[in-house]
Description:
Number of strands: 7
CATH superfamily: Vaccinia Virus protein VP39
Helix content: 25-40%
Number of helices: 6
CATH topology: Rossmann fold
Structural class: alpha/beta
Amino acid sequence: MTRGSPSETPPGLSSLLIPSPAGVDDSPANVPVLVARAMAEARYTGFPNSCSAVVGLLLHRLASQVEAGTIGEIGSGLGVGTAWLASGMRPAIRLITIESDAARATALLGVFAARPSVEVLCADWPAILDHGPFALLFIDARPAKAVSPDVFLPAVVPGGTVVLDDLTPIDRWPPEWRGRPDPLRDAWSHHPGFAAGEHRLSDDAAVILARRHP
């Protein structure tokens, strides 16, 4: 697949998707309390790369569909995406998130201190693979997105879902990108172990959703 030909959402995932909201209000009064707390921590420290509201809403919805097992997140940042996941998941579900930056990981421990179902690891991202397999895996860290889906296949339960964010929609690509291969999209859309496709969330945000074959 090239940048000019994204695939459709894989069968079985469409029912999990939220509508693409226009002008989502992510002010503290309109998001879960835990998300507002993580957003405040990110603002306080000047962290610029937090999960967007449209991606957060998708994570919240996907987490709410997990009936058993563990959710994983690669690249916590300051926990905004983590908070969306934790706010959506059911009481019996565990969430393990990994962050390589020690200062950010320490801040996360404070944000989620009252949520024993959330475990924060401070290590390079491959360490989380030892804690799987996951029913839902959110890959947010750029180094993890650069490796083959082969690495994640044993880390996801059959029927489990993988989310990769920070994709630029097709009509926002500069001319020099068009027609060129996109290694990330190619790797996931052609992998025999996953049914994967691209879903647009807003004018400038898209994600890859991949479901591991049973």
